[in-house]
Structures are given as C-alpha cells and as structure tokens.
Design a protein that fits this description.
heterodimer; A: six-stranded mixed beta sheet; four-stranded antiparallel beta sheet; about 50% strand; B: about 110 residues; mainly beta; 11 strands; globular
Chain lengths: ~110, ~110
C-alpha cells in the first residue's frame, strides 16, 4: 500500500543553519504531497503542498519540490529560527483513495540560539 | 472565522468505558476526517464523513464509530476502550476532497 518515510529525528540545529528533512514516498499514480508542522501541544498546520511532478511548494521560507523520478519531497529552509522548533510531518493523498492522508512518522526539529 | 474546534481538550477514561469526542468544522467545510495520533507517531486515518455518511474508513475496528450532523459537525465514538486507545485524536475539515485543516485535538488517556 501507499506509504511515506521520513528521516528520523530528532534534528538539532543552530539558529541560521540550513535545514533539510528527507521524505520519500511509495504510491500508485500521482499523489498530492504535503508538509505539516505540529508545535508542542497543538494540532497540525499545513506548511506547504504540491499536487504534481516538479511543482515546488513554499511557505514561510520553507520549500519542497515534488520529484517523481526519485519519489521524494524533501523539506528545506535556508536559515532556521528558534521558532521553527516543532515536529514536521510529510504526507500524501493518493489520487484514487479519496481524501485520506497518509503520514510519515514525523521528524522533530530543535533549533538552538 | 473560527477554525476547526474540538472538545473536550483532555479526557481520562477507564478500560472498558465508552467515549465521545466532538468536532466542529471550519465554516464552509462539509467534510470531516478523524485521525488517531499515538505518542511519537504520525496521525493514522480513522474515517471520513461527508453528507452524514461514512465515505472512507481506515484500518480501525468497529469499536470506532462516528456520526456527522446536518450542520457538518461530527462525533467520534469509541466503545470498550483499551489502554492502546490512549492517543491524541485529531479532527480535520475540508471543502470536499480538498485541503484538510486540523483542529487542536483531544488528548485521550485510558487507565
């Protein structure tokens, strides 16, 4: 079945460092891809999305490009801030499975001043 | 415009009991999905409701049931609670199959 695999955390970075969180997926057809962020004690917030190959989603300095050839959707940010500390989830929605979202296990990011 | 709201925020139940969680979707959204998030894990899809019917279901036993009301709000019911049902339960609403907006969740602890 469809699945999402994320790099394991926790990831600890210094402020202003470059961030990459790897995400790969397995799916039939062409799924839509998402990154969600979860701050401590809160629900999930949509960070960015891409709905077709080569699309780049971006928001708040974060970017991810839908790479069909490598079945990847890696999250990047050029300069992280302490306020970016959170858990990040990669997710997919298959084209033939309705609205169901399939999530990776999450990657915890901790940014130190 | 209020976002997705869930109640209660926290809940403690004993094994074997039953629980009902509630969700009010974002204004203009007609579809509600429920997810279970165990500690340290990603959310797992339970089911989705549209037009007061269960449209899609994940790999959860029949102990998990739901309902959607004419105003699009929804309830999640879990019978015969197990310790393993302890988790954060997330509700998400969307306009049809489009982008899902999540509520803050209900933290359920089963003792």
């Amino acid at each position: 079945g469809d699945s999402v695999t994320q790099m394991e955390g926790p990831v600890t970075l210094s402020e202003e460092a470059f961030l990459t969180i790897n995400c790969t997926y397995t799916a039939t057809g062409y799924p839509s891809l998402f990154w969600y962020v979860q701050y401590p004690g809160e629900g999930l917030q949509l960070l960015l999305k891409a709905t077709k190959a080569d699309d780049k989603g971006s928001n708040k300095g974060f970017e991810a490009t839908y790479r069909k050839e490598t079945t990847s959707f890696h999250l990047e940010k050029g300069s992280v801030q302490v306020s970016d500390s959170a858990v990040y989830f990669c997710a997919l929605r298959s084209y033939n499975q309705g609205g169901k979202l399939i999530f990776g296990q999450g990657t915890e990011l901790s940014v130190k001043p | 415009d209020a976002g997705v709201t869930q109640s209660p925020t926290h809940l403690i139940k004993t094994r074997g009991q039953q629980v009902t969680l509630r969700c009010s979707p974002k204004s203009g959204h007609d579809t509600v999905s429920w997810y279970q998030q165990a500690l340290g894990q990603g959310p797992q899809f339970i089911f989705q409701y549209y037009e007061e019917e269960e449209r899609q279901r994940g790999n959860f036993p029949d102990r998990f049931s739901g309902h959607q009301f004419p105003n699009y709000s929804s309830e999640l019911n879990v019978n015969a609670l197990w310790l393993g049902d302890s988790a954060l339960y997330l509700c998400a609403s969307s306009p049809g199959q489009d982008e899902q907006y999540f509520g803050p969740g209900t933290r359920l602890t089963v003792t």
